Amino acid sequence: MCGIIGYLGPRPPLTVLIEGLRRLEYRGYDSAGVGVFHRGKIEVRRTEGKLQQLEDLLRDEAFDGRAGIGHTRWATHGRPSEENAHPHKAGRVVLVHNGIVENYLALKEDLKQAGRAFSSETDTEVLAHLVDIELKGGAGVEEALRRALRQVKGSYALALLIEGREELLVGARNESPLLLGLGDGEFFLASDIPAILPWTREFLFLEDGDLIFITPEGFRVTDLEGREVSREVKRVEWSPTMAEKGGYKHFMLKEIHEQPEAVINTLRGRILEEEGRVHLEDFPLEEQEVRDLERMVLVACGTSWHAALVGEYMIEALARVPVEVEIASEFRYRDPLGGKTTLLVAISQSGETADTLAAVREAKARGFRTLSICNVLGSTLPRETEGVIFTHAGPEIGVASTKAFTAQLAALYLLALYLGQQRGYLSRDGVREHLRLLRTVPGMMEEVLRREGEVERLARAHVHFHNFLYLGRGISYPVALEGALKLKEISYIHAEGYPAGEMKHGPIALIDEAMPVMVVAPKDHTYEKVFGNVQEVKSRQGRVIALLNEADPRLEGEVAAVLRVPYTPPLLSPFLTVLPLQLFAYHIADFLGTDVDQPRNLAKSVTVE
């Protein structure tokens, strides 16, 4: 998830680019750069770090061209650095890119064989070389871009400049957002509305497969075959603050709705469904070492710890490896036992969580093998572990984590399948079936999110309560923990998550008409036991809110309120059941008027012990 800006018009391009990047910095802040025409050449300026460093670099510079492109980066391939920052240049081509080129390694090897030299570790540089080769072969700009993109697998939003074509700005989109803004004799390309809202309210939203070619006289939109297509221009009446959040009231709500995309991006390039296998590009163990594993330890904090608890069920069910889940801050003080037949998996959204890093260092000192699941390329945790699975969820601005959780679940499910096949517990057909089901999850997540209005109404009816109990059994227990954590984090209402079977061992003493009980009860082998727990709550005048699968008349008749999610196999149910709980917490906090995105006393990344 990166920010793209492009401009063609009478204004000094650099002014537009810097202001646009400032409004897009929430999409990425590892590095930034611009490419601007000056005296017939394209001048590229890039820096590692936040946008301010690029502004400092450009403070005394001026360019005479009418066209430019800019980029603020969220690293996916190649560490954050100046050489990996965008724009990238090859021959006459300068471009910026948001997305992931899944087959970039194969393309890069072919390009090297053809004599092309690379100056970065990114997948993006491949795109610049592909277009430049076609131009050198005599193709026009439009045909060169089409030929290049036909070779690419993956997602992209591109903005390109071509030396020798000073008044041409080019864009392309596939599975990553890109839009055109229309001003008075000027044109803007951007990955999001906020970048160009100061100059226009007229937008044309490109669709997958679209290519756009912009000159001072106008623009043409074509498909990959060169056929012209028509896209409607729409007027958007958003304030700049609303636009930054994509029209959502808070970043947290935006990120809740981004979860289907975050899961897709985590799965992208790793699912080989036809072959019936999972590809993990940076897994540290050889096949025999996987077979020799005696145990795994998952360490994490907060929401990531809840994801680890779900991962325990996934890995033990699919790979048949004993799993222990540890709170990272406790692991290092427990004199942990292990060695080379123990794999420690450290999970952290930021990759900078101090306690998780300390746990990894303790494990390495004791001879454990190490793997991390992380969202931030270039952070400390992936450098400390032998291997890593990046979640590619994009920046998460809201302090209360949402999309990181479901992206981590996706990474853990892939890990479980990979280990299960390597250890001989899953056949190729078995993996293929699991992958088929996994592919259906983002669509079902979108279906759940479309029911937000039902959750909002339920939240309004419960906003005056001061205590909540969340119950779940089996794989739904970590979901109950996560639901309770979200409510207490952002609404400041006391909430506790418990295994439903533990209710009689203490929490039942608290239950009365003033304490609603949220019961996570999808259809699985624990369902009958959960039904009994509901009866126990009702007999104490407790108010039960049940989170159920579709068409569950038996339990619906026993509870005060119901939230519904589609049925999935139990190992996949947390992807869906967590969504209404996130929305419930969000809407209660919003009704109470708390600072949803920056709740009191909390930090996004806990970098001290």
Please explain how this structure is put together:
The protein is an alpha/beta fold and 609 residues long. The chain folds into three domains: 3-244, Aminohydrolase, N-terminal nucleophile (Ntn) domain (Glutamine Phosphoribosylpyrophosphate, subunit 1, domain 1); 253-448, Rossmann fold (3-Layer(aba) Sandwich), CATH 3.40.50; 451-592, Glucose-6-phosphate isomerase like protein, domain 1 (Rossmann fold). The chain has an eight-stranded antiparallel β-sheet with strand order 3-2-4-1-10-9-11-14, with helices on one face. α10 (302-319) runs parallel beside α14 (403-422) and α16 (452-461) packs across α20 (573-592). The mean pLDDT is 90.
Overview in brief:
With about 600 residues, the chain is α/β, with parallel strands linked by helices.
What's the SSE blueprint?
Blueprint: E1 3-8, H1 13-24, E2 31-38, E3 41-48, H2 51-58, E4 67-73, E5 88-90, E6 93-98, H3 104-113, H4 124-136, H5 141-150, E7 156-162, E8 165-174, E9 179-182, E10 187-190, E11 202-205, E12 211-215, E13 218-222, E14 233-235, H6 240-244, H7 251-257, H8 259-267, E15 271-272, E16 277-278, H9 287-291, E17 295-300, H10 302-319, E18 323-327, H11 328-331, E19 342-348, H12 354-365, E20 369-374, H13 380-384, E21 387-390, H14 403-422, H15 428-449, H16 452-461, E22 467-472, H17 476-491, E23 494-499, E24 516-520, H18 527-538, E25 543-549, H19 553-556, E26 561-565, H20 573-592
Parallel strand pairs: 17-18, 17-19, 19-20, 20-21, 22-23, 22-24, 24-25, 25-26
Antiparallel strand pairs: 1-4, 1-10, 2-3, 2-4, 5-6, 6-7, 7-8, 8-12, 9-10, 9-11, 11-14, 12-13, 15-16
